[in-house]
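INTERNAL AUDIT FORM
Audit reference: QA-55
Scope: verify that the stored structure record matches its stored sequence.
Auditor: D.O.
Record contents follow.
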Amino acid sequence: MNVSLSVWLLTVAALCVLVAADFFIGRKPHDVSLREAGIWTAVWVVLACLFGVGLLVFRGGGQGGEFFAGYLTEKSLSVDNLFVFVLIMAKFAVPSQYQQRVLMVGVLVALVLRAAFIAAGAAMISAFSWVFYLFGAFLIWTAWKLIQDARKGGHEQEEYEENKLLKAIERRFGVADRYHGTRLWVEENGKRVMTPMLVVMLAIGFTDILFALDSIPAIYGLTQDPYIVFTANAFALMGLRQLYFLIGGLLKKLVHLSYGLSVILGFIGVKLVLHALHESGVHVPEIGIPFSLGFIVLVLAVTTATSLWATRRREPA
């Protein structure tokens, strides 16, 4: 899709307005109720659907279908990310009234970092056609790893560990021994140090880099349009904060989510390899967007249904 600079600027400006409105509404630290989380989750989903419908109307079924397939894939992957966010919140003992602020800033950091990944991916694809083979192989390997992790118990056996970069930043600037409201820096013993609030925000932002390593190749397997890749990622991430509070208690019930995501990533990996072979002149069938969208919806529906069924069977009568 040929997108002019003015459309790009208008889209980014509109997203900035939405983010600013979200920040203004949730600026006061408070415990997020299920009702509030449900309302705002619905708002972000509706906005994403309206954007997708707009693409369908003004750009045709191809671009609209690519957006919805990409959005569903990124949204399902972001739900898996919530498991790690829960671990991070527990690791740093984030007070409940500050969690929404942490997630808000963390998601913004993640969005900026993903924009860089998207730009790099677009440049690689336009310069090297063999990148599709690399992306496809990586997604198939990631799908296999997800299955292996799920068999070992998945997130239940994991504990968040700070990466070397975050530890180096903590050593360089120092960290306060307690939270100071929503402040990011404080003075302690005549030295300016970070608060745990800033550390947790950085942890969520840096952790998303790892998530982007599979999510960005995955969406490029559904569309090679940077505009659709960016907007699908933006809408998936921007509703993540509210989704965290809405389904936080339900995450443990999605016991088959990793299996479903592995099927989706493996499917997209195969799709990328077939596309790469086709681009190389090999006569192989290509998987279209309508089939891809239907397949993703079916896998997510089956995964959710079997997860809830399995969880219900485990509960004592």
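Auditor finding: record pair retrieved intact. The first strand starts at residue 185 and ends at 188.
Action required: none
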